[in-house]
Amino acid sequence: MKKSEAECCDVVYVHDDIVEKVKKRMPEENLLRELADFYKVFGDTTRIRILCVLLESEMCVCDLAEVTGASQSAISHQLRVLKQMKLVKNRREGKTVFYSLADGHIQSIISQGMEHITE
């Protein structure tokens, strides 16, 4: 067996009691889809970079572009996606719009992900 293959049972036997218990507790399909979409947002390096920057400080698009090395247009596009998924929020101060993480959950998600991959 190759390392990448999952191991399977040698005999087919469904543990009906466990299966039924778990089925009753499973979230509805639409919630699972929303959760999958939420995690898809983390599948882009530019978005992750933006979130990591915003862990340190709120910033405007110009500052984010400078720190990340991406164009203002690319940053703006990714911020739109992050805002739609409620990962970032913004506030206007005169002619400048500052972005920050939407809440503490985002910091936890990034921190736990980093901890997981660096173990």
Plain-language structure description:
The chain has six helices and three strands; from the N terminus they run H-H-H-E-H-H-E-E-H. With 119 residues, it is mainly alpha-helical. It has a three-stranded antiparallel beta sheet. The protein is elongated. The mean pLDDT is 94.
Number of E-state strands: 3
| Biggest beta sheet attributes | 3 strands, antiparallel
Name the average pLDDT: 94
The CATH topology: Arc Repressor Mutant, subunit A
Main sheet strand line-up: 1-3-2
Percentage of residues in strands: 5-15%
- Assembly state here? single chain
- Look at the structure and name the CATH superfamily: Winged helix-like DNA-binding domain superfamily/Winged helix DNA-binding domain
How many helices does DSSP assign? 6
Count of the separate structural domains: 1
Evaluate the radius of gyration: 20 Å
CATH top-level class: Mainly Alpha
- CATH architecture classification name: Orthogonal Bundle
**End-to-end separation:** 26 Å
Structural class designation? mainly alpha
Note the overall shape.
elongated
Q: Note poorly predicted spans.
A: none
Task: Spell out the blueprint of helices and strands.
Layout: H1 16-25, H2 29-40, H3 45-56, E1 59-60, H4 61-68, H5 72-84, E2 88-93, E3 96-101, H6 104-118
Antiparallel strand pairs: 1-3, 2-3
Question: Can you give keywords for this protein?
Answer:
119 residues, 59% helix, mainly alpha, 3-stranded antiparallel beta sheet, Arc Repressor Mutant, subunit A
Task: Summarize it.
The protein has one domain: Arc Repressor Mutant, subunit A (Orthogonal Bundle), CATH 1.10.10.10. It is 59% helix and 12% strand. The protein contains six helices and three strands.
